[in-house]
Design goal:
The chain is α/β, with parallel strands linked by helices. The chain has twelve helices and twelve strands.
Length: 303
């Protein structure tokens, strides 16, 4: 029977192999002998009649069927964790675990102003915090790796539920002595084309938004620097190396950033972007995660 094939313990072995990249790594996490883990997955493959793992070099990767089975295991684990958390909540309403995922640009925006207060009030709750681009943030939410995500302009996906959003327009940022700083009008992308610039990699929502504006204005900017770090981006501008385009949502700390100015852009696409707080549509959050969600929605800062 199908429920016998989808044995939860075997599926958890598969999940750990996928997350660690090896049988030995999964065995260490689970506290089992590697041969036990290997036999469990072999039995799962035999009973399901599917290949779940493929060997790559010294490690293994999941097939499509393997990813599907692992997702089942993760959601089963989530259901159990939710049940145990709710039982614990009935006892003392204090414990639990919350996994968060957000872009690097949200770290300073959230950690001290928002999350610090919740963590001090709930010392018995444990937390996982993953820093990721928009694509990986969405993937973590959809795959139930994280309970709550913070994303800049996430895709319109029926699997996502946005609980709150706030306007976060993209601006041009340059040092005060940069030629663009003299502009007294909202800038078009063509105004930027003759200057050196830096941008984020394409997995970031900010970059996708800028690319949409480039298509709208029929122009293709050629950045000097492409990075996956907001800190690198801001330092590029602070050093006077060129312009950057990003929301002014990061509380900048450091004397070098006092020399930066923010300039408006004319394109409506860049002026209508928003930050969102998201969960997977239909997911039942644990008491701790639900409390955290209410807290961040209430205290999400204005920028």
């Amino acid at each position: 029977m199908l429920e016998d094939v989808l044995d939860r313990r075997r599926a958890l072995c598969l999940l750990q192999i996928i997350e660690t990249g090896s049988v030995r790594g999964a065995a260490e996490v689970l506290g089992l002998d590697p041969s036990v883990v290997s036999r469990a997955v072999a039995k799962l493959e035999k009973d399901a009649g599917l290949t779940l793992l493929e060997r790559r070099g010294r490690g293994v990767v999941a097939t499509d069927a393997g990813h599907m089975m692992a997702l089942f295991a993760r959601r089963q684990q989530d259901l159990q964790d939710t049940f145990l958390a709710e039982v614990n909540n009935l006892k003392n309403a204090r414990g639990g675990h919350v996994n968060l995922v957000f872009g690097e640009g949200f770290v300073d925006l959230l950690l001290e102003p928002v999350l610090q207060g919740f963590m001090r009030k709930h010392p018995q709750v444990t937390y996982g915090m993953q820093v990721a681009g928009t694509d990986d943030t969405v993937r973590a939410i959809v795959d139930d790796v994280a309970h709550i995500g913070f994303a800049f302009q996430p895709p319109n996906d029926v699997r996502l539920r946005s609980h709150f959003s706030r306007a976060s327009p993209i601006r041009v940022h340059v040092r005060r002595d940069h030629p663009l700083a003299k502009s007294r009008k909202a800038l078009k992308l063509s105004d930027l084309a003759l200057h050196a610039g830096a941008t984020l990699v394409e997995s970031f929502g900010v970059r996708k938004h800028i690319q949409a504006a480039e298509l709208d204005e029929h122009i293709s900017l050629k950045p000097m620097l492409v990075t996956n770090s907001f800190k690198v981006l801001w330092e590029f501008a602070a050093l006077g190396l060129g312009f950057i385009m990003t929301p002014r949502s990061v509380p900048l700390k450091g004397a070098q950033f006092k020399q930066l100015v923010s300039l408006p852009l004319a394109n409506p696409i860049l002026n209508n972007s928003r930050n969102h707080i998201i969960t997977r549509a239909g997911r039942h959050l644990s008491p701790a995660a639900s409390n955290m969600l209410r807290h961040v929605v209430k205290d999400f800062p204005e920028v």
